[in-house]
Design goal:
This protein is an alpha/beta fold and about 500 residues long. The chain has three domains: about 120 residues, Heat Shock Protein 90 (2-Layer Sandwich), CATH 3.30.565.40; about 90 residues, Actin, Chain A, domain 4 (Alpha-Beta Complex), CATH 3.90.640.20; about 200 residues, Glycoside hydrolase/deacetylase (TIM Barrel), CATH 3.20.20. Helices cover about 40% and strands about 20% of the residues. It is built from 15 helices and 18 strands. Strands 11, 12, 13, 14, 16, 17 and 18 form a seven-stranded parallel β-sheet that branches. Helix 7 packs parallel to helix 14 and helix 13 packs parallel to helix 14. The chain is globular, with a radius of gyration of 28 Å. The N and C termini lie far apart (about 120 Å).
Length: about 500
């Protein structure tokens, strides 16, 4: 009987030892399992690279397009600032594809910037992702996502990606769906795209013949990056895909009427006789071109005076370079700014105000206001005005609606004069510093209001030549308000 307690004690120690051995073996098996599953490990690394700091903000808002929401991700981190906007819908598969693209771009940007900083290359980067929406009569939305990434202070990376969605059915349109008779139509499409590219005289000096041949071979992948608009189909090519970087990203726009023989019946356009251009009399939505719009009037031409205008900024590198160039020529300009970007870079807005430039409102999110409710219009305009006032101590004096789209509902929500333009440099399309001067030479006249965008480095780089030419021709530079004052 005296040995019984020691037997129980010895049994408890055996149990404890056995449990410890089991736990150790379990830990070892888990560790070996993690090593044998690289895909899971890689996924965790990618997730870890996505920003989680307190400077990041993520917001969601409804768009004017039914079923489409706008996701905005921003960070004001000094070394890795970014502003990302992308669409989300009621279709999970579409959402996953778009979200994966923006996440990949953000991860690439953050990883590369971190690497440069660790290598003692202390330069702040920039990532800007924005998108446009085009709606076809069949109900398909085309989402055109533009990305600009600058990681080291040198020339940035620009690219365009497109996605097409029928929000009600959930179908994502491909080029295969669009073309009738498939393979035969694909060959005809390749020929037509090549012809349109070769007919662009301004692009010709920059064409890369070998790349052009490769990119117009009739394969489905070669024509997958497209948007479907009401009357046209547009194909997008990034730098060096068909032309040298100096020419920037290229958009090949083909009227759908020219595609009638090869596209599916549901996308065909009826051929119509050419009608004389309509008059603007009595049309609420008619958009007069040029100068400040007051009581639907257009500024008359003035001798040797032009108004330089810049939309969609500010952005650190290109807007700053533009301000330096304007100072060099003692030129004043008008900046139509997005409230979302003013909130990122208030110090740049303050700098342009202190330099004597005119501050303009271009809405918060660059929406087509003619498709928005009165409440949404007022919110877009008023929030932007408040952001500009907070940055500079003064409110904007003029307003430019995105896309030049304006009607009585839009006018009713602001007392600011509405400013349009008569010279569109198409800098957003060509991204070509040399094209900027060529286009201005061809279209400028006394009293012109010139449209440019200060978010494009190609515009900033081409501005010096434009101002040198205009100054040499005897032009002086005024703000749009001064232009309107002179006209009256």
């Amino acid at each position: 009987m005296s040995t019984h307690p020691r037997s129980k004690k010895r049994g408890r120690w055996i149990d404890i030892t056995f449990i410890i051995i089991i736990l150790a073996l379990s830990s070892l098996m888990f560790f070996l399992l993690m090593l044998s599953n690289p895909a899971k490990k890689e996924k965790e690394v990618v997730s870890a690279n996505l920003p989680t700091n307190s400077k990041e903000q993520i917001n969601q808002s409804d768009s004017v397009y039914p079923g489409i929401r706008i996701i905005t991700e921003t960070s004001n981190d000094e070394k890795t600032p970014y502003a990302i906007q992308y669409p989300q819908s009621n279709v999970p598969e579409f959402n996953d594809i778009v979200k994966a693209y923006t996440n990949n771009m953000k991860t690439l940007y953050l990883n590369e910037t971190d690497y440069l900083n660790e290598s003692n290359i202390h330069r702040s980067g920039e990532l800007n992702i924005s998108f446009e929406v085009f709606q076809h009569t069949t109900g398909y939305y085309s989402f055109v996502i533009h990305s600009y990434m600058n990681k080291s202070g040198t020339n940035g990376l620009t690219e365009t990606r497109t996605y097409r969605l029928h929000n009600q059915s959930g179908h994502m349109l491909t080029i295969n769906d669009l073309l009738a008779n498939n393979e035969k139509s694909l060959v005809k499409l390749a020929t037509k795209v090549r012809e349109y590219i070769l007919s662009d005289n301004e692009l010709m000096p920059y064409l890369l013949q070998e790349q052009l041949e490769e990119k117009t071979v009739p394969t489905w992948d070669n024509f997958s990056n497209f948007s479907l608009k009401k009357d046209t189909i547009e194909f997008y090519y990034d730098n060096y895909e068909i032309a040298a970087v100096a020419a920037g990203s290229k958009v090949v726009s083909i009227p759908l009427e020219d595609m009638n023989e090869i596209i599916a019946d549901s996308f065909k356009l009826p051929k119509v006789a050419i009608q004389p251009p309509p008059t603007t009399s009595g049309k609420e939505n008619e958009i007069p071109i040029g100068g400040i719009q007051t009581k639907d009037s257009v500024v008359n031409s003035l001798p040797k005076v032009v108004a330089l205008t810049f939309d969609d900024g500010p952005t650190p590198e290109s807007t700053t370079l533009i301000l330096d160039t304007l100072k060099k020529y003692n030129a004043k300009a008008t900046f139509f700014m997005l409230g979302s970007r003013v909130s990122f870079y208030p110090e740049i807005v303050k700098e342009m105000h202190e330099a004597g430039h005119e501050l303009g409102n271009h809405t918060w999110n660059h929406l087509d206001l003619t498709k928005a409710s009165s409440e949404k219009i007022a919110l877009e305009i008023n929030n932007t005005s408040d952001a500009i006032e907070q940055a500079t101590g003064t409110k904007p004096t003029v307003f430019r609606p995105p896309y030049g789209a304006v009607n009585n509902s839009v006018r009713a929500q602001t007392s600011l004069p509405v400013v349009l333009w008569d010279v569109d440099t198409l800098d957003w399309k060509y991204r070509n510093a040399n094209h900027l001067l060529t286009h201005v030479k061809k279209h400028v006249k006394g009293g012109s209001t010139i449209l440019m965008h200060d978010i494009h480095m190609s515009t900033a780089e081409g501005l010096d030549a434009v101002l040198a030419y205009l100054q040499g021709e005897g032009y002086s530079f005024v703000t749009v308000s001064e232009l309107n004052s002179d006209a009256n």
